[in-house]
Design goal:
Elements: E1 11-12, E2 23-28, E3 31-36, E4 44-46
Parallel strand pairs: 1-4
Antiparallel strand pairs: 2-3, 3-4
Keywords: Ribonucleoprotein, Ribosomal protein
Protein name: Ribosomal protein
GO molecular function: structural constituent of ribosome
Length: about 50
């Protein structure tokens, strides 16, 4: 079996929040995204399900 490669992706949450002043809210295709220029770990997405 192959082990999956570690990929840093978005946190999937029912309610997303801005975590710092580098975060920005983006609405695309009925989903709300939080993208962060300062800390990539702050990336979040809401409304996937």
């Amino acid at each position: 079996m192959k082990t999956p490669s570690l990929v840093r992706s978005m946190k999937v949450r029912s309610s997303v929040k801005i975590m710092c002043d580098g975060c920005s809210v983006v609405r695309r295709k009925g989903r709300v995204y939080i993208l962060c220029a300062k800390n990539p770990r702050h990336k979040q997405v809401s409304g996937l399900f």
